[in-house]
């Protein structure tokens, strides 16, 4: 189905609705933020709806905070809202059943727009535009704008551009031709100076303390696998942030970085292998203890601790990671530093 047809289906899916709640995945990243805001503005212009954009979890990463601030704080914390009963929901950059979104009890999911692997529960939405070949959901929203004839303003163009850039690692990871086309469509429309400010957002002192902890805790297995448990985190995105750094170690094929946030053990999985497999690894080690998902080269998961010791749980996860990668679970790793 073409973007024009998907756009028409989107308008049909929300026709007659009095309210719409747009939800990205919990702890939204730039792709999720940009896509959710883009959908809200598109519907506000082309329909009678005035959607509410909300999120659950935390926006903790410095760059993500800077992006939300640049967009004039368009997202509201879901827990702070008083919503109509059974308010219809549009899920963006996530799907029903993924375990990384917080759909209010009794609310029907009428729209799903995503690029992650298909979930069967998405079939119950009035519109499920799930394009697993694309590297970002921002690409799908950019195509909606092109199909509608609506030009994204500079701030929104910058956000969508950044969403594509981060999710595809600058068009080098899981990239489709559509991502490239959207990237270069948006490029002349962005605010380069503001984008640089977002990308270079200053980080708190605690980031460097966590970075130090991650390096000291990191262990190298079979000269190609790095596993690190960084302890308590000030925000859940930190595990992914540090995993991206550890992946730069020469010769590394796999990184699993874990940390404790609130009542959960958060893990981030990264791989340099062209065949991918990060999502499968995350799902294998998390199992029924929580939720996990992701792409071929990047994935994440949450394990609900239920009073268990987070460090002990992280040790168990590390053993499962080694087993999944065909190594002895009790293999001793070499310190990174």
SSE topology:
Elements: H1 3-14, E1 21-24, H2 30-46, E2 52-55, H3 62-70, E3 76-77, E4 89-92, E5 109-114, E6 127-130, H4 137-148, H5 154-167, H6 177-186, H7 192-199, H8 205-217, E7 219-221, E8 225-232, H9 238-246, E9 254-261, E10 264-271, H10 278-286, E11 290-294, E12 298-304, H11 310-324, E13 334-335
Parallel strand pairs: 1-2, 1-4, 2-3, 4-5, 5-6, 8-9
Antiparallel strand pairs: 7-8, 7-13, 9-10, 10-12, 11-12
Give a quick summary of the entry.
It contains eleven helices and 13 strands. It has 337 residues and is an alpha/beta fold. The termini are far apart.
Describe this structure in words.
There is one protein chain. This protein is of the alpha/beta class. It has two domains: 197 residues, inorganic pyrophosphatase (n-terminal core); 125 residues, Diaminopimelate Epimerase, Chain A, domain 1 (Roll), CATH 3.10.310.40. It contains eleven helices and 13 strands. A seven-stranded mixed β-sheet has the order 11-12-10-9-8-7-13, sandwiched between helices. It has a six-stranded parallel β-sheet with strand order 3-2-1-4-5-6. Helix 5 packs antiparallel against helix 6. The longest helix has 17 residues. The mean pLDDT is 96.
